[in-house]
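Entry for the shared binder. Reason: the reviewer on the internal report wants the predicted structure included alongside the sequence.
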Amino acid sequence: MLREKELKGLSGWLMLLVLIVLAVAQIAMLISVIESEEALFIVVRLIVLFITIVSFAGLTVVNPNEAKVVQLFGRYKGSLKEQGLRWVNPLTSRRRVSLRVRNFESSKLKVNDHDGNPIEIAAVVVWRVVETAEAVFHVNDYENFVHVQSESAVRNLATSYPYDAHVEGQMSLRMSAGEISHKLRQEIQDRLAQAGVEVIEARISHLAYAPEIASAMLRRQQASAVIAARQKIVEGAVGMVEMALDLLSAKQVVQLDEERKAAMVSNLLVVLCSDRDAQPVVNAGTLYQ
Protein backbone atom coordinates (compact mmCIF):
# COMPACT_ATOMS: atom_id res chain seq x y z
CA MET A 1 0.00 0.00 0.00
CA LEU A 2 1.58 3.23 -1.17
CA ARG A 3 1.37 6.18 1.18
CA GLU A 4 1.72 9.79 0.16
CA LYS A 5 5.05 11.45 0.87
CA GLU A 6 5.65 15.11 0.23
CA LEU A 7 8.34 16.09 -2.25
CA LYS A 8 9.77 19.56 -1.83
CA GLY A 9 11.76 19.95 -5.04
CA LEU A 10 13.99 22.94 -5.71
CA SER A 11 12.99 26.54 -6.18
CA GLY A 12 11.90 26.90 -9.78
CA TRP A 13 12.91 30.55 -10.05
CA LEU A 14 16.42 29.87 -8.79
CA MET A 15 16.86 26.91 -11.15
CA LEU A 16 15.45 28.94 -14.05
CA LEU A 17 18.07 31.64 -13.46
CA VAL A 18 20.87 29.07 -13.13
CA LEU A 19 19.84 27.24 -16.30
CA ILE A 20 19.59 30.45 -18.31
CA VAL A 21 23.07 31.49 -17.19
CA LEU A 22 24.42 28.01 -17.98
CA ALA A 23 22.77 27.97 -21.41
CA VAL A 24 24.16 31.41 -22.33
CA ALA A 25 27.61 30.44 -21.06
CA GLN A 26 27.59 27.16 -22.97
CA ILE A 27 26.53 28.89 -26.19
CA ALA A 28 29.34 31.44 -25.80
CA MET A 29 31.88 28.69 -25.11
CA LEU A 30 30.56 26.65 -28.03
CA ILE A 31 31.08 29.59 -30.39
CA SER A 32 34.64 30.06 -29.17
CA VAL A 33 35.35 26.33 -29.50
CA ILE A 34 33.93 26.25 -33.03
CA GLU A 35 36.31 29.05 -34.03
CA SER A 36 39.22 27.03 -32.67
CA GLU A 37 37.96 24.02 -34.68
CA GLU A 38 38.72 21.51 -31.89
CA ALA A 39 36.26 18.63 -32.51
CA LEU A 40 36.47 17.06 -29.06
CA PHE A 41 35.67 20.30 -27.26
CA ILE A 42 32.83 20.99 -29.68
CA VAL A 43 31.21 17.62 -28.87
CA VAL A 44 31.62 18.18 -25.13
CA ARG A 45 30.09 21.64 -25.30
CA LEU A 46 27.18 20.34 -27.39
CA ILE A 47 26.49 17.58 -24.84
CA VAL A 48 26.59 20.04 -21.94
CA LEU A 49 24.30 22.45 -23.81
CA PHE A 50 21.88 19.60 -24.58
CA ILE A 51 21.78 18.58 -20.88
CA THR A 52 21.15 22.21 -19.91
CA ILE A 53 18.27 22.52 -22.37
CA VAL A 54 16.75 19.20 -21.20
CA SER A 55 16.96 20.43 -17.60
CA PHE A 56 14.41 23.11 -18.42
CA ALA A 57 11.85 20.27 -18.63
CA GLY A 58 12.22 19.82 -14.87
CA LEU A 59 10.40 23.10 -14.25
CA THR A 60 6.79 22.60 -13.20
CA VAL A 61 4.04 24.87 -11.90
CA VAL A 62 1.98 23.80 -8.86
CA ASN A 63 -1.28 25.72 -8.58
CA PRO A 64 -3.15 26.37 -5.29
CA ASN A 65 -5.15 23.33 -4.10
CA GLU A 66 -3.28 21.12 -6.52
CA ALA A 67 -0.60 18.44 -6.29
CA LYS A 68 1.80 16.85 -8.75
CA VAL A 69 2.46 13.13 -8.31
CA VAL A 70 6.07 12.53 -9.39
CA GLN A 71 7.33 9.21 -10.83
CA LEU A 72 10.80 8.24 -11.98
CA PHE A 73 10.94 5.19 -14.25
CA GLY A 74 7.80 3.74 -12.67
CA ARG A 75 8.78 4.43 -9.06
CA TYR A 76 6.79 6.85 -6.92
CA LYS A 77 9.11 9.62 -5.69
CA GLY A 78 6.62 11.88 -3.90
CA SER A 79 3.97 14.55 -4.36
CA LEU A 80 4.62 18.24 -4.92
CA LYS A 81 2.12 20.30 -2.93
CA GLU A 82 3.94 23.58 -2.36
CA GLN A 83 2.44 26.06 -4.79
CA GLY A 84 4.58 28.03 -7.19
CA LEU A 85 7.33 27.23 -9.69
CA ARG A 86 9.32 24.13 -8.64
CA TRP A 87 12.10 22.10 -10.26
CA VAL A 88 12.49 18.32 -10.13
CA ASN A 89 14.40 15.72 -12.08
CA PRO A 90 13.53 16.36 -15.76
CA LEU A 91 13.34 12.61 -16.40
CA THR A 92 10.36 12.24 -14.05
CA SER A 93 6.73 12.16 -15.10
CA ARG A 94 4.27 14.39 -13.24
CA ARG A 95 0.53 13.83 -12.94
CA ARG A 96 -1.72 16.65 -11.78
CA VAL A 97 -4.22 15.86 -9.03
CA SER A 98 -6.78 18.44 -7.93
CA LEU A 99 -7.23 18.85 -4.17
CA ARG A 100 -10.26 21.12 -4.54
CA VAL A 101 -13.60 20.27 -2.96
CA ARG A 102 -15.86 18.73 -5.60
CA ASN A 103 -19.43 17.49 -5.66
CA PHE A 104 -21.72 15.55 -7.92
CA GLU A 105 -25.34 14.43 -7.92
CA SER A 106 -26.05 10.81 -8.67
CA SER A 107 -28.63 9.85 -11.24
CA LYS A 108 -32.14 8.98 -10.07
CA LEU A 109 -31.94 5.35 -9.04
CA LYS A 110 -35.00 3.11 -8.97
CA VAL A 111 -34.75 0.61 -6.11
CA ASN A 112 -36.98 -1.20 -3.63
CA ASP A 113 -37.01 0.10 -0.08
CA HIS A 114 -36.96 -2.10 3.03
CA ASP A 115 -40.68 -2.83 2.66
CA GLY A 116 -40.32 -3.78 -1.01
CA ASN A 117 -41.92 -0.61 -2.38
CA PRO A 118 -40.27 0.75 -5.56
CA ILE A 119 -38.85 4.23 -4.98
CA GLU A 120 -36.71 6.77 -6.82
CA ILE A 121 -33.70 8.14 -4.95
CA ALA A 122 -30.71 10.37 -5.72
CA ALA A 123 -27.96 11.86 -3.58
CA VAL A 124 -25.45 14.71 -3.58
CA VAL A 125 -21.91 13.83 -2.50
CA VAL A 126 -19.27 16.45 -1.60
CA TRP A 127 -15.72 15.08 -1.65
CA ARG A 128 -12.02 15.84 -2.13
CA VAL A 129 -8.73 13.98 -2.55
CA VAL A 130 -6.57 13.90 0.60
CA GLU A 131 -4.10 11.10 -0.30
CA THR A 132 -2.71 11.68 -3.80
CA ALA A 133 -0.68 8.45 -3.94
CA GLU A 134 -3.71 6.30 -3.10
CA ALA A 135 -5.92 8.21 -5.55
CA VAL A 136 -3.47 7.69 -8.43
CA PHE A 137 -2.05 4.22 -7.75
CA HIS A 138 -4.74 2.29 -5.83
CA VAL A 139 -7.61 2.74 -8.30
CA ASN A 140 -7.71 3.04 -12.06
CA ASP A 141 -9.79 6.25 -12.26
CA TYR A 142 -10.54 7.79 -8.89
CA GLU A 143 -13.26 10.14 -10.19
CA ASN A 144 -15.20 7.31 -11.80
CA PHE A 145 -14.55 5.20 -8.69
CA VAL A 146 -16.18 7.89 -6.52
CA HIS A 147 -19.27 8.01 -8.76
CA VAL A 148 -19.77 4.25 -8.97
CA GLN A 149 -19.20 3.54 -5.29
CA SER A 150 -21.43 6.43 -4.20
CA GLU A 151 -24.34 5.16 -6.29
CA SER A 152 -23.77 1.67 -4.91
CA ALA A 153 -23.90 3.03 -1.35
CA VAL A 154 -27.13 4.92 -2.11
CA ARG A 155 -28.73 1.71 -3.44
CA ASN A 156 -27.68 -0.24 -0.37
CA LEU A 157 -28.98 2.45 2.00
CA ALA A 158 -32.34 2.64 0.20
CA THR A 159 -32.89 -1.09 0.62
CA SER A 160 -32.04 -0.94 4.34
CA TYR A 161 -34.78 1.50 5.43
CA PRO A 162 -38.46 2.02 4.57
CA TYR A 163 -39.63 5.11 2.74
CA ASP A 164 -42.06 5.94 5.56
CA ALA A 165 -42.03 4.81 9.20
CA HIS A 166 -45.11 2.75 10.09
CA VAL A 167 -44.01 2.19 13.69
CA GLU A 168 -43.30 4.99 16.14
CA GLY A 169 -39.55 5.47 16.58
CA GLN A 170 -38.64 3.60 13.39
CA MET A 171 -36.03 5.25 11.16
CA SER A 172 -37.19 6.02 7.62
CA LEU A 173 -35.77 7.66 4.52
CA ARG A 174 -38.31 10.49 4.53
CA MET A 175 -38.61 11.32 8.22
CA SER A 176 -35.03 10.73 9.46
CA ALA A 177 -33.10 12.98 7.08
CA GLY A 178 -30.27 13.81 9.50
CA GLU A 179 -29.57 10.24 10.59
CA ILE A 180 -29.87 8.92 7.04
CA SER A 181 -27.41 11.54 5.73
CA HIS A 182 -24.91 10.61 8.44
CA LYS A 183 -25.17 6.90 7.65
CA LEU A 184 -24.91 7.57 3.92
CA ARG A 185 -21.76 9.67 4.36
CA GLN A 186 -20.19 6.99 6.57
CA GLU A 187 -20.96 4.19 4.13
CA ILE A 188 -19.56 6.11 1.17
CA GLN A 189 -16.47 7.03 3.19
CA ASP A 190 -15.84 3.36 4.02
CA ARG A 191 -15.98 2.51 0.32
CA LEU A 192 -13.73 5.38 -0.80
CA ALA A 193 -11.08 5.20 1.93
CA GLN A 194 -8.81 3.04 -0.24
CA ALA A 195 -8.88 5.69 -2.97
CA GLY A 196 -7.54 8.47 -0.73
CA VAL A 197 -10.83 10.36 -0.85
CA GLU A 198 -12.54 12.18 2.03
CA VAL A 199 -16.33 12.48 1.93
CA ILE A 200 -17.26 15.85 3.40
CA GLU A 201 -21.04 15.57 3.05
CA ALA A 202 -23.62 13.24 1.57
CA ARG A 203 -27.36 13.85 1.56
CA ILE A 204 -30.44 12.67 -0.29
CA SER A 205 -31.44 15.19 -2.98
CA HIS A 206 -34.44 13.34 -4.48
CA LEU A 207 -36.81 10.86 -2.85
CA ALA A 208 -40.17 9.75 -4.22
CA TYR A 209 -42.27 6.67 -4.79
CA ALA A 210 -42.02 5.18 -8.26
CA PRO A 211 -44.73 6.51 -10.62
CA GLU A 212 -46.59 3.18 -10.79
CA ILE A 213 -47.40 3.22 -7.04
CA ALA A 214 -47.26 6.95 -6.31
CA SER A 215 -51.05 7.48 -6.38
CA ALA A 216 -51.75 4.48 -4.15
CA MET A 217 -49.12 5.56 -1.64
CA LEU A 218 -50.52 9.09 -1.64
CA ARG A 219 -53.94 7.76 -0.67
CA ARG A 220 -52.29 5.69 2.05
CA GLN A 221 -50.52 8.76 3.44
CA GLN A 222 -53.75 10.75 3.33
CA ALA A 223 -55.60 7.96 5.17
CA SER A 224 -52.87 7.84 7.83
CA ALA A 225 -53.09 11.60 8.24
CA VAL A 226 -56.88 11.46 8.61
CA ILE A 227 -56.65 8.70 11.22
CA ALA A 228 -54.03 10.60 13.19
CA ALA A 229 -56.16 13.77 13.08
CA ARG A 230 -59.26 11.87 14.23
CA GLN A 231 -57.35 10.41 17.15
CA LYS A 232 -56.31 13.89 18.26
CA ILE A 233 -59.89 15.15 17.88
CA VAL A 234 -61.31 12.30 19.97
CA GLU A 235 -58.68 12.82 22.69
CA GLY A 236 -59.51 16.52 22.82
CA ALA A 237 -63.27 15.90 22.80
CA VAL A 238 -63.08 13.43 25.70
CA GLY A 239 -61.07 15.96 27.69
CA MET A 240 -63.59 18.71 26.99
CA VAL A 241 -66.54 16.50 27.97
CA GLU A 242 -64.78 15.51 31.19
CA MET A 243 -64.05 19.16 31.98
CA ALA A 244 -67.68 20.15 31.28
CA LEU A 245 -69.08 17.48 33.62
CA ASP A 246 -66.60 18.44 36.35
CA LEU A 247 -67.52 22.13 36.10
CA LEU A 248 -71.27 21.44 36.15
CA SER A 249 -70.81 19.28 39.22
CA ALA A 250 -68.46 21.68 41.00
CA LYS A 251 -70.63 24.76 40.45
CA GLN A 252 -73.82 22.79 41.09
CA VAL A 253 -75.44 24.21 37.98
CA VAL A 254 -77.56 21.11 37.48
CA GLN A 255 -77.78 17.69 39.06
CA LEU A 256 -77.44 14.94 36.47
CA ASP A 257 -78.10 11.31 37.04
CA GLU A 258 -76.19 8.63 35.14
CA GLU A 259 -78.68 8.46 32.28
CA ARG A 260 -78.61 12.19 31.71
CA LYS A 261 -74.81 12.20 31.92
CA ALA A 262 -74.67 9.50 29.26
CA ALA A 263 -76.98 11.49 26.98
CA MET A 264 -74.95 14.65 27.50
CA VAL A 265 -71.68 12.85 26.80
CA SER A 266 -73.16 11.36 23.63
CA ASN A 267 -74.40 14.73 22.40
CA LEU A 268 -71.12 16.53 23.15
CA LEU A 269 -69.02 13.87 21.45
CA VAL A 270 -71.22 14.01 18.36
CA VAL A 271 -70.89 17.79 18.20
CA LEU A 272 -67.13 17.89 18.89
CA CYS A 273 -66.08 14.93 16.74
CA SER A 274 -68.33 15.51 13.75
CA ASP A 275 -66.76 16.96 10.60
CA ARG A 276 -70.01 18.82 9.89
CA ASP A 277 -71.83 21.59 11.73
CA ALA A 278 -74.21 20.33 14.41
CA GLN A 279 -77.94 20.58 13.63
CA PRO A 280 -80.00 21.71 16.68
CA VAL A 281 -82.94 19.49 17.69
CA VAL A 282 -85.83 20.95 19.69
CA ASN A 283 -86.89 18.55 22.44
CA ALA A 284 -90.65 19.00 23.05
CA GLY A 285 -90.75 16.67 26.00
CA THR A 286 -88.33 15.46 28.62
CA LEU A 287 -85.60 12.92 28.61
CA TYR A 288 -87.93 10.33 30.27
CA GLN A 289 -90.98 10.82 28.01
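Summary line for the report: The chain has three domains: 10-95, 102-209, 214-273.
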